[in-house]
Design a protein that fits this description.
It comes from Melia azedarach (Chinaberry tree). The protein is α/β, with parallel strands linked by helices and 135 residues long. It has helices at 15-23, 34-39, 64-72, 86-97, 109-115, 124-127, and strands at 11-13, 27-30, 46-47, 51-54, 57-60, 77-81, 102-106. The protein has six helices and seven strands, in the order E-H-E-H-E-E-E-H-E-H-E-H-H.
Length: 135
């Protein structure tokens, strides 16, 4: 039997290393809400929200793993990102525990990506969405 993965078991990289991974065949999995994703996202990203905002507060997407499997098909090389890195870290733990082997958390999330000018010409503040998902 294998040990359950925890946040400290997740490989995390900065945005530049994430960009390199994306250039070498990894796929970007954006786990922000669809509203955040629609505002701006990494080119060719897949979007599967890890959490939803409801009247009761934030709720984990109960279909997250099923939805990732349906959109990523056989892809096991994923860079996972959210707004600042919290949701993506938790999503990576779930993916590792579901049997994915090559998942990497992008530290700083899409906010760091936009802050460093990797998201395009617009000012970073126009591209980012501030969320309430921080732990």
């Amino acid at each position: 039997m294998y040990a359950r993965k925890r946040p400290e078991d997740v490989a995390s990289v900065d945005i530049y290393a994430a960009k390199d991974l994306l250039g070498s065949g990894y796929r970007y999995l954006d786990v922000r809400t669809s509203e955040e994703f629609t505002k701006s996202h990494v080119e060719n990203a897949l979007n599967v929200p890890y959490m939803f905002i409801t009247q009761e507060g934030r709720v984990k997407n109960p279909e997250f793993l099923t939805q990732v499997a349906s959109v990523s098909k056989e892809e096991d090389h994923l860079v996972v990102g959210c707004n600042s890195g919290g949701r993506s870290l938790r999503a990576c733990v779930d993916l590792l525990n579901a049997g994915y082997e090559h998942v990497t958390n992008m530290e700083g999330g899409y906010s760091a990506w936009a802050d460093k000018g990797l998201a395009g010409d617009k000012p970073a503040e126009e591209l980012k969405t501030y969320c309430k998902f921080r732990p």
